[in-house]
Amino acid sequence: MAFFSKLKDRLFKSSSKLDEGLEAIVEDGGAVEPGEPEREPEHPQEPEPQPEPEPQPVPRREPEPEREPEPAPVPEPEPEREPEQPPEVPEPGPQQPPEQPQPTDPEPVTPPPGRPQPSDPAPGPQPVEIPGDAPDELPPQESRGMLGRLFGRREAKPVMRRTLDDDMLESLEELLIAADMGVDTALRVTSNMAEGRLGRKLSVEEIKRLLAAEIARVLEPVARPLPLYPKRPQVVLVVGVNGSGKTTTIGKLASQFRAAGKKVVIAAGDTFRAAAVEQLQVWGERAGVPVLTAPEGSDPASLAFDAMTKAQAEGADLLLIDTAGRLQNRQDLMEELAKIVRVIRKKDPEAPHNTLLVLDATTGQNALTQVEVFRKIADVSGLVMTKLDGTAKGGVLVALADRFGLPIHAIGVGEQIDDLAPFDPEEFAAALTGLERAA
Ligand SMILES: Nc1nc2c(ncn2[C@@H]2O[C@H](COP(=O)(O)OP(=O)(O)OP(=O)(O)O)[C@@H](O)[C@H]2O)c(=O)[nH]1
């Protein structure tokens, strides 16, 4: 299954929550405009249709700063065939010559007088121009000819639209807050979306496109694959609260790096929980990667040192160190992590090269607090967000990006070994808003 549709299916709870909310908002105060043509769903970030590539393993997006070639955009959907309709009675008004081809893109929008506009472009985010962003300025339906249809206009169909005003903005803010985007981020996204568009009539689909574009813009700067350094072994310390998905993520990462030809060693640093060690061993077997363990209750720093020695001796490319996630005693955890770092620095003064914080998306706004805490006790260099499948709280990732600007290296979308995906802001924003894209 194409990755986008998989992600979208799995983020269904988030997107359906937004979907339902948006429909309710537009219905509340909106009006059906008979005979108004609805545009084909156009996607601002989708250029030429190309075949979709297989999802790449996370490590293949390296080396930094080279970005993985953008995933090929998903082809535009075929225009839906609609049953033949009797010709509709045209609205009274000036007719255009029927054979005149219609432009694919609308003319630049000139705001009507009195419509609130920023007098000069303020520094900071500018409104994203969305193709097809002027529904009220589309050419009259009756002027569409064969070419107009070929160029992506649908048959006329009643569409519910609501005028974008302060009330509607407030409802949109509330909806985004309910989707766990957080107050500040929700306000920023909606006000950017509204900039230059107040007074315009928008359909649900158009709002989704605008929101998705704004969300993608917040996410873009943090979408960074795990940087790989020429250093051997590259030491990746994996931190996070119990149950956030550290073990699973280490297993998935190990498997992907190994598939990419890297030699990987795992250290089971949560020596206080036998179950955690066993689980890591299972993942090591699955990934075909050795897991270094130590007797229950032994010093994790000593295990980390042994693992470092082994990884160096074996010429491993990557050493992934699992750690405990007890936050109940923050001081102990902080000392434990600090000791691991001190000890591995005896072997390599630059280690750890990455400190990955694993966050569970289902905890919603708690993820923000966890970032704050772990940034104090460890030098967090990047994030992995797990369990984005089947949660209605995916919006928290946007809040994290907006608040901390820490790189988001990958996302977990399931419990299987290949359910770790590179983080693609546009795909994520589309999946989150329920924006239709071709599968
Ligand atoms: N649905 C889903 N479940 C996940 C994902 N990642 C991890 N899990 C599940 O979350 C649970 C906890 O994952 P672990 O990897 O054990 O979490 P941990 O942080 O290592 O937990 P401790 O070992 O208790 O410290 C397991 O049941 C995993 O299968 C994901 O992306 N999606």
TrEMBL record:
Cited NCBIfam families: ftsY
The residues that the entry says bind GTP are 240-247, 322-326, 386-389
**Which residues lie in coiled coils?**
none
Q: Recorded E.C. number(s)?
A: 3.6.5.4
> Which residue ranges run through the membrane?
none
Phylogenetic classification of the source organism? Bacteria, Pseudomonadati, Pseudomonadota, Alphaproteobacteria, Rhodobacterales
Q: Tell me where in or outside the cell this protein is found.
A: Cell inner membrane; Cell membrane; Cytoplasm
Biased composition regions of type Pro residues, renumbered to the chain: 47-58, 86-128
User: What species was this sequence derived from?
Assistant: Rhodosalinus halophilus
InterPro entries, from UniProt?
Answer: AAA+_ATPase, P-loop_NTPase, Signal_recog_particl_SRP54_hlx, SR_rcpt_FtsY, SRP/SRP_N, SRP54_GTPase_dom, SRP54_N_sf
Keyword Transmembrane helix carried by entry: no
CDD domains to which the protein is assigned, alphabetical: FtsY
Q: Which residues form the AAA+ ATPase domain?
A: 232-378
PANTHER family listed in its UniProt record: SIGNAL RECOGNITION PARTICLE RECEPTOR SUBUNIT ALPHA
Query: What's the protein's topology in the membrane?
Result: Peripheral membrane protein
Superkingdom in the source lineage? Bacteria
Protein name in UniProt:
Signal recognition particle receptor FtsY
The annotated subunit structure for this chain is: Part of the signal recognition particle protein translocation system, which is composed of SRP and FtsY. SRP is a ribonucleoprotein composed of Ffh and a 4.5S RNA molecule.
Q: Where is the composition biased (Basic and acidic residues)?
A: 1-20, 36-46, 59-70
